[in-house]
Amino acid sequence: MNSLQEKFKKETAKKLQEELRIKNVHAVPMLSKIVVNMGVRDAVADKKNMEKGAEVLSQITGQKPKVMKAKKSISSFKLREGEEIALMVTLRGKRMFDFYQKLTTIIFPRLRDFHGVKKESFDGKGNYTLGFSESTIFPEIDASKIDKIQGLEISIVTSAKNDEEGYQLLKALGMPFRK
Questions:
Q1: What pTM was estimated for this model as a whole?
Q2: Which of 21, 47, 54, 67 is most buried (CB neighbours < 10 A)?
Q3: What domains does the chain contain, in order, with CATH numbers?
């Protein structure tokens, strides 16, 4: 088992239960899943961009990404319904905790001029989303082998009922929020 996962079960869950004044142990908010999305630039024009994006995403997450298709046709983007335009990976269990730990202990400290993540990025239901303009911040990615810089979005889905519970959970798990 992962050290963060064990720490959550043994210590963090009890602290959260006291802080949030929750009577039932099973009602304590916890991480449900982490979804990593990547909208692939010029995916329609060149199919190789999808393959390169899939390779990058699988290196970052350790899982094969699912190909997402356009739901609608948008003429101004030269996009037709059903064309492959994005990639998505859903992480749960051990991989989710490993990825979260990597995010908080390796990725954020490596960012230049990083003063913490915004507290305003919650969605109202306790879930948190953050985006990166480039995937080269991950240590698995060799920047010299990438010809097109892709951005990605990370959504951390929790079982929290509201933003305050979600904030307390992520803070307890080591998310560096801005002061």
A1: 0.86
A2: 54
A3: 3-172 (3.30.1440.10)
Residue 142 CA to its chain's centroid (Å): 20
Judge contact between 165 and 17, C-beta under 8 A: no
Q: Return d(Cα 179, Cα 67) in angstroms, integer.
A: 38
In contact, 53 and 86? CB cutoff 8 Å:
no
Predicted confidence (pLDDT) per residue in 32-64, tens digit: 999 999 988 777 677 888 888 888 889 899 999
Long-range pairs, 135-138, Cβ under 8 A, ≥24: 135/38, 135/56, 135/57, 135/60, 137/107, 137/110, 137/111, 138/59, 138/60, 138/107
Q: Phi and psi dihedrals of 124, rounded to 5? A: 100, -20
Q: Is 157 within 8 Å of 34 (Cβ atoms)?
A: yes
Write out the H or E segment, with its range, that includes residue 129: strand 128-132
pLDDT at 147 over 80: no
Q: How many CB atoms lie within 10 A of CB 133?
A: 10
Nearest to 160 by CA among 125, 117, 113: 125
**Among candidate residues 172, 92, 173, 165, the one with its CA nearest the CA of residue 122:** 165
